[in-house]
Design goal:
184 residues; alpha+beta; 5-stranded mixed sheet; 33% helix; Transposase_11; IS5 family transposase; IS402-like_dom
Length: 184
């Protein structure tokens, strides 16, 4: 059991909601690591942008945290956890204040690794990738699309908005965007 806690740690209420969503595999050796500590470590990495090798002491070993993170990302567990927590936040909204707007924007980031999704954004002087993100007015994530930095926002808009299918858009009637999303 850890002694030091961080603002990124899941609360007891969040843990009660997310624990049933974490896969348990029958057979094999019993777990020695507290999965809640692993979730706290993953949350710490995601919240702070910290690299795995810089995880503070007290969390499970970085190899363990990395293994769980990679597994949860590939099998959809992180998506299910995020969706459950987002649903919980939305249920606590006041019914007379439904969210009626969302925002979309992109950010170009340098990358050193190659791959298909890499290009040059001359406007920002960046070689790498571009993250296109849609959030609701509470700042809750609705959709993400990663493209090469050279991809124009207007060209990426249709693929990004296709990812909104099945998302809890509710009463969203207005989408705010900069002029680069001209093809919406």
């Amino acid at each position: 059991m850890r002694t030091h806690h961080y603002p990124s740690d899941v609360t007891d209420e969040q843990w009660a909601l997310t624990e049933p969503l974490i896969p348990v595999y029958p057979g094999g050796r019993p777990r020695k690591t507290d999965v809640r500590d692993v979730l706290d470590a993953v949350s710490y990495i995601l919240r702070t942008g910290c690299r795995r090798r810089y995880i503070p002491e007290g969390f499970p070993p970085r190899s363990t945290t990395g293994r769980y993170f990679d597994e949860w990302r590939s099998n959809g567990t992180l998506d299910r956890l995020h969706d459950a927590l987002r649903r919980e936040v939305r249920t606590k909204e006041k019914p007379y204040r439904p969210r009626s707007s969302a925002r979309v924007d992109s950010q170009s980031v340098d990358t050193t690794s190659g791959g298909e999704e890499r290009g040059r954004d001359d406007a920002k002087n960046v070689d790498g990738r571009k993250r296109h993100i849609v959030v609701d007015s509470m700042g809750l994530l609705l959709a993400v699309l990663v493209t090469a930095a050279s991809v124009d926002d207007g060209r990426a808009a249709s693929a990004l908005f296709a990812r909104l299918n099945g998302q809890p858009m509710g009463k969203v009637t207005r989408m705010y965007a900069d002029s680069k999303y001209h093809d919406m």
